[in-house]
Amino acid sequence: MRLADNVEVLELPTQSSVQGGIIHLTLIWDDKTVVLVDAGFPDQLQQIREAMNNAGVPFDKLDKVIITHQDIDHIGSLPDILRESPHKVEVLSHEEEMPYIEGRKPLIKMNRERLLKMLVSLPEEQRQRMEALFADPPKASVDTAVADKEVLPYCGGITVIFTPGHTPGHICLYLNQSKILITGDALVAVDGELQRPNPQATYDMDAALKSLKKLTQYDIETVICYHGGVYRDSVNERLEELASAAD
Ligand SMILES: [Zn+2]
């Protein structure tokens, strides 16, 4: 889905049951730089390639991947992207999130307890896949740490907003030119309504609510939720409502 001259939402179907199974990566570009925000589940490289082609921005032009946070559905195909690109692709994340993405610390939500809970409900084939994934989750080195309020000087300016809560080093991205907020998992859209993050999937709910408050400081016209997609209905007012419980 094209949101602005240089912004495309890549809608990728997955096997996940969350939010209709669709995840929403964002592609942003200018004359010199092509940026992908988040990298899908494992084994989605081919889908990412096709979605980029359909957007008219070939995969081989990709320069940078910004990771909003460490979860498996956001870093899954990152190692494949880096391996398959014909040139070096820069990876960016918040410093707090780097040790997890790089595999120096175990991914917060991929612990034994969670695995066991999941396995109970899965058919045998998926069960084996899941066990293998937990035993050896995707990892990749991060080249550049980004910080709160930093403006990345490409694609019309991309402002980093540090929004811990869903994970300790979660970031949102604000596109200065098009007034689009890429939320990662700091917010979700459910049946067309913008909602707070799901407490069950949130590492620190207090922090997550404080982070929502931060988002109210930006003039936002459009929101892209990784889970739930595009939301455009009086965004600033809705954000005020969602953040009000954080007072
Ligand atoms: Zn997610």
Structure description:
Helix content is 27%, strand content 26%. With 247 residues, it is of the alpha/beta class. β12 and β13 form a beta hairpin. α5 (112-120) runs antiparallel to α6 (124-135). The chain has helices spanning 45-54, 72-75, 78-84, 98-101, 112-120, 124-135, 205-215, 235-243; strands at residues 2-4, 7-13, 22-29, 34-37, 64-66, 90-94, 144-146, 151-152, 158-162, 171-175, 180-184, 188-190, 193-195, 222-225, 229-231. The model has no long low-confidence stretch (mean pLDDT 92). A seven-stranded mixed beta sheet has the order 1-2-3-4-5-6-7, with helices on one face. The protein has a six-stranded mixed beta sheet with strand order 8-9-10-11-14-15. Zinc ion is lined by residues 71, 73-74, 185, 226-227.
* Biggest sheet overview: 7 strands, mixed
Specify the helix fraction band.
25-40%
Total beta strand runs: 15
Mean pLDDT: 92
Shape: globular
Bound molecules: zinc ion
Order of helices and strands: EEEEHEHHEHHHEEEEEEEHEEH
Number of helices in the DSSP assignment: 8
Amino- and carboxy-terminal Cα gap? 36 Å
Low-confidence stretches: none
Q: Beta-strand level of the residues, as a percent range?
A: 25-35%
Helix/strand-derived class? alpha/beta
Instruction: Record the strand order, biggest sheet.
Output: 1-2-3-4-5-6-7
User: How much is the radius of gyration in Å?
Assistant: 17 Å
